[in-house]
Please model this.
Amino acid sequence: MTDNMQTSAIMTAGIKVLRETLGIIETEIFITTIKEESFDYTEWRSDNLFNDMTLEDLVNQAAEFERDNPSLVPQNAKIIA
Model:
């Protein structure tokens, strides 16, 4: 799978999750808001994401995701045991 195909698969999966979780209209609002507000994911992540997780929790969730979604894991990525 090429990088472009991996990116396309990730984008497709992400949009699918957003639509299933938020709905079509809310997904469009989410995407538009991120684009228009120059959303800084790195800053947001450091302030909001994983705050209540230990490093062990994060590693375990990443390993579970890799096991459950092998088609989304880049071929050159090392699978976490």
